Amino acid sequence: MKMEEMYGTLFQGSSWDSPADRSRHKLSYSDKRDQDNSPESAPPTEKTFTDDVTDARLVPTVCEPCDHGPAASISSDHGPAASIRPVAADEVNTRGFRRKKPFKRIRKFLGRIKKQFISIFTCGRNKQAFPKREKVIHSDTTSYRIMDFIGEGVYGKVAQCVDLTTGEDVAIKIYKENDEEIIQSELATLEEVRALHHDRHNIVKFIESFHFGELPCLVFEMLDTSLCDMMEDRDHTRLGLNEIRPVTQQLLVALEALKNMGIIHMDLKPDNIMLVDHKDQPFKIRLIDFGLALRLSQVEVEEAIQNLAYAAPEVVLGLRLSEAVDMWAVGCVMAYMYFGMDLFPFDCPYDWMNTVVHLLGCPDKNQINAGKRSAMYFILDEKDEWRLKSPEEFEEETGDTPTVSMSFFHLVDNLENAVEIFPKRKSDLEHEDRTAFVDLLQCCLQLSAEQRISPSEALRHRFITMSHLVDETDTSSYADAALEFMEASSCGRPDKAHDSSH
User: Fold this and answer.
1) Model-level pTM greater than 0.85?
2) Do 314 and 361 belong to one domain?
3) pLDDT at 270
4) Which of 72, 80, 142, 150 could be 165's S-S partner, Cβ–Cβ 3.0 to 4.6 Å?
5) CA 430, CA 424: separation in Å to the nearest integer?
């Protein structure tokens, strides 16, 4: 069977598992479909791939942290690296634990935040009673009535409330316990970013902080729904390029403002990208959740966590960090919107590295030499060159059985190939736009942080400026729709004169 026919078979047979129901706002906006945005074009999931092609049922084993595996002993000429590492999704989610000794592993693996994690299981024991629906809570300036709880994380819950003074809806993040270090860190960052204009810089508006008894509360503007929830409401139907562009542009504006302040967000992912009002302002967004944010001056002494699916190579390898960490995450978010699923695995660090090497190539010698955790994934061959360990070598050395994905992204040759074959192009102009998209995507997903594109450079990239489309708006419905989406999200009309050479 020809490669092209095999892709066609896979795409026709693809289906998406329905996500678990969540308490959230339902979208009343009828999503405008881009010309390359048909549900039947979705790429195959891991389940579909195994069902349709091999008819085999893969039962992945979660790669658990190792208590006895050797640490990397490679010396670095670039100074100490940040004590920061990626965290697999199941480590920061109470669903689907597969650990033999959960509390021992939590204490060893989560370090500084172990008390917050354990609090999930001990919530309510000798602690401040958590407020319930219809409860009125008071700050120094006003009172709020809790209408509903709309989200929950490791540290706390988010409540939809009404300000009884103004009648406005607000969102209040109520911590589950009073951990002074964590709360003061987030509060300090919020006070700094409050200087930014929330609408112009696309960052959530922080209103005030207070305590309900001993529980700290942070008050924010009320927003619509997250990008993640919107995608789930669409059954993970991919977004078109004309929908991806305004979201990406607004993220870049937010990150440029944070970079100028010396702040790394560290937790950029679809859950933390909120739509403001998807009905009246389609794809107008705000960046939220500064709980893991770091100042650039702190990265060598702070310990933090990051979602593995959106973690940069320098985080996984244990290299010195910079704001480039957030630009890698922008690339991951762009891919998530384009394919309707995460580009990189989130269950197992070895599977993550295996996918990165397959799609983007191997990190260079200098990166591997300098990484504090490089020896976990790479080994010197007989030619004294670094190569990725086999799953067997990884398991033998660490004692952990790694997951090895069988997904759409392992079927293609590289990232560019994945974008180009899916979906089929329908016009020359659309193909040119896709070429611009994949170029920016590759610039964001550079393995080297030093070579990765910056927010200001990305804002001048032709995919964002639409320099290849602006002259076609009078003759092309595709170009005209691209401009309408940018203006609807208040991104403004692109200026061809500011286009960069990318």
Assistant:
1) no
2) yes
3) 98
4) 142
5) 10
* Cα 394 to Cα 348: distance, rounded to the nearest angstrom: 12
pLDDT of residue 471: 85
Domains identified in the chain, total number: 2
Helix or strand run (H / E) with residue 482: helix 477-488
> Can you give the pLDDT at residue 86?
58
Q: Identify the domain boundary among 221, 242, 275.
A: 221
d(CA 249, CA 264): 18
Q: Where are the beta strands (DSSP E) in 64-214?
A: 83-87, 136-138, 143-152, 156-163, 169-175, 206-212
Same domain, 237 and 373: yes
Residues noted as catalytic: 267
10-residue mean pLDDT profile of the chain (502 residues): values are: 44 38 37 44 48 40 43 44 50 39 47 47 56 94 97 89 98 89 91 94 97 94 97 95 98 98 96 95 96 84 72 93 96 98 92 96 95 94 92 92 85 92 81 96 98 98 94 85 88 49 54
484 membership: H or E segment, kind and range: helix 477-488
From the list 360, 359, 352, 342, the residue with the least C-alpha distance to 376 is: 352
Q: Which two tokens stand for residue 206?
A: 């922080």
> Torsion angle, CA of 189/190/196/200, rounded to 10 degrees?
120
Residues 445 and 475 in one domain: yes
Pairwise CA distance, residues 356 & 350, whole Å? 10
300 and 214 share one domain:
no
Query: How many CB atoms within 10 Å of residue 404?
Result: 19
Residue 281 lies in a domain: yes
Token couple for 115: 């008390």
Contact 80/317 with Cβ under 8 angstroms? no
Flag whether 68 is in a domain: no
**Is the Cβ–Cβ distance between 295 and 349 less than 8 Å?**
no
List the CATH number of the domain containing 456: 1.10.510.10
Question: 234 in helix, strand or coil?
Answer: coil
pLDDT, position 476:
87
Task: Confirm if 167 and 147 have CB atoms less than 8 A apart.
Answer: no
- Asked whether residue 121 is domain-assigned, the answer is no
244 with 210, same domain: the answer is no
- The encoded tokens of residue 236 equal 């993970």
DSSP lists the bridge partners of residue 85 as: 305
| Domain assignment of residue 240, yes or no | yes
Q: Which domain holds residue 245?
A: 83-97+225-403+427-498
Q: Which of 159, 187, 221 is the last residue of a domain?
A: 221
Cβ neighbours of 300 (radius 10 Å): 14
> Same domain, yes or no, for 260 and 216?
no
Same domain, yes or no: 246 and 162: no
Residues present in the chain in total: 502
Q: CATH number of the domain that 140 lies in?
A: 3.30.200.20
If asked whether residues 380 and 474 sit together in one domain, one would say yes
> Integer distance in angstroms from the first to the last C-alpha of the chain?
37
Tokens for 413? 């040759």
For residue 491, which amino acid is it? C
